Structure formats: C-alpha cells, structure tokens
C-alpha cells in the first residue's frame, strides 16, 4: 500500500499568483485547440490596443507590433506559457492577432551534396 504524500503548503504569494493566473485565463488550462500554439509560434498584432480588453491582452497587442514568439511573450508578461497561450488564443479568436509557425529549414539532399563535392574535387 502506498502512502499518500501531503501536498506542499502554499505561502500567500503563491496563492495570489495562482489566483491571478486563474482569473486571467478564466480557469482554462490551455488554448481551445483550433490552432497549435507552441513556444516558437510567432505572434503579430493585426490591430492596435483594443479598449475593453484585459491588461494582459492589451500588453500582447502592444508588444506584438513587431512579431514575437510565444516564449518571449510569456517571459515579458511573467506568466506561465500555458496562461500566455490562452491569452494568445483569445486574441486570435477575436481576429486581433495572427500566428505563424516558424519556417522549417529545408536540408539539402545528401546525394546532391556528394555530387557537388565530387565535381569540386575534379576541378
């Protein structure tokens, strides 16, 4: 039989931080799933700051005049990535931001590289 370990005690600051994150995200733990938002997803603002939005939403719109990665936004907002992803998803649903996965680097064909190397050696 396994003995259950007691939960660690939360100090007042930890409890306030958890409550803040809960309020900011509306209790959601991740984006809606319509789009994939990961650490390297680039976020760009489509509109200026929107009145009536939460301060965190307005901060994202302000910071994303020049596209930033979701990881950078999370660091600037001092929020966990999961909470930042929820905020990005909110703005995406409202049409206020666009997201783009980073371009993947296409590696050249190894056989082509061998051909080039042989050609250079013949010179």
Automatic annotation (TrEMBL):
Superkingdom to which the source organism belongs: Bacteria
Query: Which InterPro entries does this one have?
Result: DUF742 (IPR007995)
**Native organism:** Actinospica durhamensis
Task: Write down what this protein is called.
Answer: DUF742 domain-containing protein
PANTHER family per UniProt:
DUF742 DOMAIN-CONTAINING PROTEIN
């Amino acid at each position: 039989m396994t003995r259950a370990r007691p939960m660690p005690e939360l100090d007042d600051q930890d409890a306030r931080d958890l409550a803040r994150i809960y309020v900011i995200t509306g209790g959601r733990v991740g984006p809606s799933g319509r789009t994939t938002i990961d650490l390297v997803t680039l976020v760009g603002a489509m509109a200026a700051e929107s009145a009536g939005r939460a301060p965190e939403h307005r901060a994202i719109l302000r910071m994303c005049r020049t596209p930033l990665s979701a990881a950078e936004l999370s660091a600037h907002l001092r929020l966990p990535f999961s909470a930042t992803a929820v905020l990005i998803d909110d703005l995406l649903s409202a049409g206020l931001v666009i997201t783009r996965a980073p371009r993947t680097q296409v590696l050249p064909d190894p056989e082509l590289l061998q051909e080039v190397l042989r050609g250079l050696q013949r010179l």
